Amino acid sequence: MKRYLALLTLTLVLLTGCGNKSERQFKKAVRYNAVGDTTAALRLYNNILRDEPDYFPALLNRAIFNETIGEFKQAEADYKRAYSIDPSSPELLNNMGAFYTAQKQPYLALVYLNRAIAINQDYYLAYVNRAAAYSAIRDYDEALADLNEAISIYPETLLAIEQRAVLNLRRLRPLEAIEDFNRLIHFSPYEAKHYYYRGLALKSSGRYGNALQDFDTAVRLNPRYVDALYQRAVMHFKNVDHYSALGDLNTLKTINNKYVPAYELSGDILAIEDPVAATQNYLAARRLDPDNSRRYNAKIALMRTGAGRERVIERTFWES
What we know:
The protein is mainly alpha-helical. 75% of the residues lie in helices and 0% in strands. It has helices spanning 20-35, 38-51, 56-68, 72-85, 90-102, 106-119, 124-136, 140-153, 158-170, 174-187, 192-204, 208-221, 226-238, 242-255, 260-270, 275-288, 293-302, 306-319. Helix 3 runs antiparallel to helix 4 (72-85), helix 9 (158-170) runs antiparallel to helix 10 and helix 15 (260-270) runs antiparallel to helix 16.
């Protein structure tokens, strides 16, 4: 699941004991944030904190930017310093929870997110982030409960609906996932990923024709969407349209020549008619994915006989 951070503005915090210069600079940084000039905003946060190291809003916002650009140690230092100043800020607690989930420390994340929700029981963003932490420890029931709570607080929040849809897809509840993706597509009809994920849910429920339509829509909206291209190839393969499937896989390889499943599926499709080309694809997959060499080696060995080649394509047809 994604994480969602709260960026502070002057409307979210009460500034006390702050110099006029810092306040003016912070207001200016917020304006830079609003127009997307993050470099200028970060420069101002640095200036503020050089003069006033305990200026809470600048600490929290700088932590977000440092996290975004991968400066995780600096981000954590800013979060911890901000926490020492105001340990009861829901925005800070939410962001720290999201940060530690991203750093693969979900149990620590839950400590901060539980505090954020205890302080503000209507803080829907904290519920969404806590759902991500619960998902990281595979406690999907608690994750679903938090997403349902977030949606009950803020019914128009598409981000919680999206996360619930993905979670239900992961929990093998495709019908519930489809219902949420229908809602997302209604509000965002040009978002390719929603069609892609609904396609996965439709595929999971055995509705292959509808799944193909969704993967096709996702690719039309985003021609470089390699996951959607791959799944459309799978659907073509299941429809015994090998020409279209190989066309999608070849297009995918030109976009991302390290996408391992494209090579393996290409090999499987080519197994009957061109075992030499199939073997070349398995070798490429093995080179890119050495951890699964045994599987590719087994398929290469099966290319030696007609029965072996039929076995490969039949297994792939039923398992894909």
